[in-house]
Predict the structure.
Amino acid sequence: MYNGKIIREEKHNDSQMHRVLDLALKAGRISLRNGAEIFRVEETIEYICRHYGIEEMDAFVLSNGIFLTAYSEGKEVYARVKHVPAGGTHLGIVAEVNDLSREIAAGHVTLDEAYKRLKEIEKMPAKSAVSQIFAAGIGSAVFCYLMRGNVYDALFTTIIAGLLQAGLVFISQYKVSKIITNILGGIFITLCAILASSIPLPFEVNLSNIIIGCIMPLIPGVLFVNAIRDVASSDFISGLVKLLDALLVFVYIAVGVGCVLGAYADLFGGVMI
Amino acid sequence: MILIKVIGAFLAIFSFAIVLETPKKYLVYAGIVGAVGWLVYLLALEGGANDVFATFLSAAAIALVSHIFARVFKTPVTVFLVAGILPTVPGAGMYRIVYYFIQNDTAMASYYLTITLELAGAIAIALFLVDAVFRAFQKGWKQNSLRYQEKNVDKSSKIV
């Protein structure tokens, strides 16, 4: 069995130190990108460095970047700044990297194995588009029902939220900014909801309930929760940045919804259900 | 009636956990977190609490259960918390602000703005409190576990 003590006593050369730090940086980058909190990323980097025998290191993590320096006696100083652009959320990857760092700290993983496993984790596939679309549709519909919508509202919500999620999955392949995505999303659901509520049907369909249900896939839950947890663990800069980001996403959605509602009210004389 | 709504909350959170790429083995637990949160919310409303306080209690319950699950399954809290907190996030309030703003009803719009900010604040404070409590316990515990590991390593290397 590989043992932490042995690695520490090994006289490692510069290149090994660099490999350890690269591994730590990579692990940190992957988990930060996929929605981990700041303290978790810092801990991951620290565990990995400490276990593989780097005594003096400092990791400073922001919501979109990692600063890592290390110093070993008689060796050159290692310093890297890594820009980590925001990615999608993949909680599975966060959980896996977390597991890996704990296993490394417990001394069950060699450096080469760790590299191999990290590579596998990074390639972990997202859930299929179909299952995401179905999940978003059903989830939003149930929300619509919970927020005092009736069964018919929920039915329309399923369809619209499913379409919305399909659009989100499609748009995530390209580098489209959050502003565009969320404003377009808001416009889309409001248009569809107005369309649904204006079809003459034997039962009553409520515009507001459909929109409230359909908003759910757009809501930045991960950002909001991570912002609060970052502030709670005294990472104020990242926490406030994420809070502002979440707030802006809300504003973008509101702009999208508001544009269409406003135009509709102007065109059809302000009679809204 | 409450039972149906709680089952609904379970289903909704289960679905959104799929969208957030929660690992398969934790999907059911994420759903349970959401169901507990909604149950607490409904019971608090029944008991005469106002919306903000009910949301506060609900968010606290969600955070508590998430932290417990995270400790039990040794996985990040985020896995359960992010999906579980969704029903309390005031999406409806945000919509109502826009709706009344478009209708030139500034009074109602600012009323809902206040409510929405209060709700968001209530969620934040609930998460803060539970986080702080668990952190207070965790610190000593984690340091101990690290120390324990190092001791073990020392022993085994002596034996070898």
